[in-house]
Protein 1
Amino acid sequence: MLEVDFHTHTHFSHCGIHSHLEILNQAKALGMKGVAVTDHGPALKGRVSPTLFDRFQCPVKGLRFFKGMECNVLNEQGEIDLPQHLIPYMDIVLVGIHFNIQEGLGQEAYTQMLLNVLARNPAVDVITHPNDEKYPVDFVALAKAAKQYGAALELNNSKSLLKRDDPAVTRALVKACQQEECLLAVGSDMHAIQELGLDEAVQPYLKDFPQALIVNAKAETAFQFIASRKNNKEHR
Ligand SMILES: [Zn+2]
Ligand SMILES: [Zn+2]
């Protein structure tokens, strides 16, 4: 079980079904220390609520709540659907390649796409599920770039839990992070409440992986990572 989950979806995402309060209360009940809600950006019809970012404060005591978004890559130039005016409110920004991007373009194209994302969007903290087989990526090149920008690559529990990954590909992702000393973030990618905080499906991949490279190995390191990235969220 994760102490801090960086990747969760409410019904503000088209694919989500739970409320913010359901997730926060469940996190507290599970004994978690923090949770980031990261609904999809507008390109996947995610609801972007100024009230959430501007006014909502977590009412659950003893739990850190982080405001975030799982943005979508928009094109090969690496533009993403992160609303610029909301950047200062963001505690954590995730980005992934999703179904708005055409499949079958080949590994080189998707790798370049993500390298461009990192180069042009300093607010990006985590690249989600780079082991998605529909969008193959050169993990070594991506890990090198992520390290350069201080961003993390995600090991996504839902992809493994729901058997939507190829274990050999996921192993290659973890190996590249270890080899390049790139940060790794474990995320549940929770859509259904029982998935909150889960990391059991990816733990087998982390047996020999250095704990120091896992940004949310413990609550303390998760909070430090988020704090260390705050400068990248200044309005620009
Ligand atoms: Zn995603
Ligand atoms: Zn997600």
Protein 2
Amino acid sequence: MTKEVNKPKDWEITEALGSLTCTSSRCEDNLHCFLRDLRRKGNRGKSYRSDTCTGCGEEIIDWNRINMHNLEDKDYFVECLKKETWRHAVWNLEIPQYMVEAASKLNIDEMRLKVIKILSKRINKKKSEIYRDGAQTPKGKKIIFLAQHATGTCCRKCIEEWYGIDRNEIMNEEDINFLTEIILMYIKQKVSLRN
Ligand SMILES: [Zn+2]
Ligand SMILES: [Zn+2]
């Protein structure tokens, strides 16, 4: 029981992110947003990816380079993710101690398996078959969930935005592999895994 005492509630993590959401932009601070709001008039049926920032209209990202899904270029991928306001905040989030501890019990292969399992269970379905797509990934509880928000792998909207994968397409092994390695970039940066 005492173990649970210092465990922050989910809202405490969310609170650290302030009033930001995945559609926030702070262009004056060079923090942008590329997630198109499809509920807006004229946007129906379009891709969730906006090639230009939805706030300032600037071209910030080299999408051809992003679309390559080249693991050797993953640093550029991460650099771009951090140019989005919401993800930038998650990359800079202080990780609660209980998540650090939980992660330290796993080695990289065990963590990778957990990531793949979460992606298969919660994410790799057609958007039309997911109940409230966009809300299936908590903003706390597990380092993997935070990593998903940081890397645009939290829902089918963000995957279409960042990975260019159609929201109603089932992802293949290669896709899942790429997403997993990007997620692991966040995890490795934020916590120390077991050897
Ligand atoms: Zn902008
Ligand atoms: Zn999302």
Protein 3
Amino acid sequence: MSNKDKDVMIRTREKSLISHKRCHALQSLLSLFVICVLVFNCFGICLDSVQQQKTVLDPENENEARLNRLQPPEKILDIVGVSAGMKVAEIGAGKGRYVVQLAARVGNTGKVYAEDIDAEALDYLKDRCERWDLENVEIILGEATDPRLPQGILDLIFIVSSYHHFDDPVSLLRKARGALKPDGRLAIVEWIPWNKNDDEGTTPQEMEAEMNTAGYQLKRTESLDVAKKLNIYIFWVKDHQNLI
Ligand SMILES: C[S@@+](CC[C@H](N)C(=O)[O-])C[C@H]1O[C@@H](n2cnc3c(N)ncnc32)[C@H](O)[C@@H]1O
């Protein structure tokens, strides 16, 4: 073999060694990339699952989240005085934004009667209670002027965001009175309208007059200054002994 041939052979070997090393380095880089992608993905999934670990008290959608910011459940239920063991009915419970809060507060020794006239909303609420294993909630499909509540056993009738939706609040709440114990209370959380054209709410004067006609006496009013003025009215039943 001539010197020239040897030289060519050596160069060819060197070239193949270099390309082999490059190939190896590329493979290592690729493996590192794949490992990084896997680790980041796994981290993302873990983060997602932490973020998705919701509790029964969390709002189920953006609308509920918005309403809970305006009508903070903890604050309102503290003002109303909802505690363990109480028997509470919510009239106009809808899809249960507040039912879950009430159920958590009264606990297993208490009970929540969730009433509405909207069967579809109550179907959603039934599913919500099953998803969260809420065994202390009973769902009641009422009528426009009869909430069909159990008689004489409730510590509290609670209404939030619903009063101005009732067609005939006087008849509805007159009928509801008999469900309260002698020292039971009616708590109504209701917006104060901005002006005469604002139909989302009730003036304090109208509220007191209507509930007086329905057989209640106002004991206390608390106000929360949120986006709009929100009042929390606490009523007692007048002449309870004549009701049941
Ligand atoms: C704006 S939603 C409020 C639902 C729930 N309280 C909340 O804050 O998420 C008003 C609810 O009042 C209910 N409602 C209207 N008239 C009613 C009546 N006469 N008796 C019971 N519920 C009634 C509606 O069906 C609706 O579910």
Protein 4
Amino acid sequence: MHDVLEILGEVYMNNTLTWWTTALTITSALVFIMLERLRPYTKGQRLFREGFVNDFILYTIVQSYVLGLIIFGVIYAIDDFTTIERFDGIRSLPVWLQVVLFIVVHDFYIYWFHRLQHRNMRLWRTHEAHHSTNDVDWLSGSRSHSLEILINQTVEFAPIVLLASPETAVVKGCIDAIWGMWIHANIDVRSGVLQYVINGPEMHRWHHAADDDAHNKNFSTKLAIWDWMFGTAFLPKQRKPKGYGLGDTFPKTYVGQHLHAFRPLRHDDTASNNELRS
Ligand SMILES: [Zn+2]
Ligand SMILES: [Zn+2]
């Protein structure tokens, strides 16, 4: 019954693929940190900026580990109640094709869910912590409320674990981690026509911008095509964002950022960060 989950566990514990993907993720982080020093987009941002320990220790290491176990448990339960894993159609494809397939399908989902999080008051509460970093850099992507991670990573990984080869989950997880660092990195990138297809810091840093006209734009994660196709692309050439974040009243601690999502809804509450933009 739990063949796929057992094999996935073995892949994570023993397989050299796990070590390679971990090494690649750490190396990528170091390369992004170096490029941020060599070619910064926003000059003067420090590596050890406000919230560094919060984002690195609590969100990146502790939260990822704990939520990984919980999500694995949820997928185990889904597996228990269904026979989805017996469908072998996707598992028989080459791993690279499975990875491409899940990247495109998941990216399309996350574009629309992300858009909805900026429109719906309650869903915005799960996403606002991600927008609260005053400095956007390689580490900023890790700051996501655990509810947001629980929803999105269960939706993302349940089909992969149950339908794809175990290696696909490991490779996709590694690509997610590296891409998350890349799109937030404080690197001055000019990718030309590629920006119409591949998403990067050039557009995603505008998604975090405090400028009014950047509001509700650039929802894409990996493929920029969704923003260009669905009319939410924003890429001014002659200026840079006036700032990032949700203002200094937003809680600074991990616990504070989590509890903040459960404050009472006010009658004048708005989804997204309308009220906080000047
Ligand atoms: Zn957002
Ligand atoms: Zn972001």
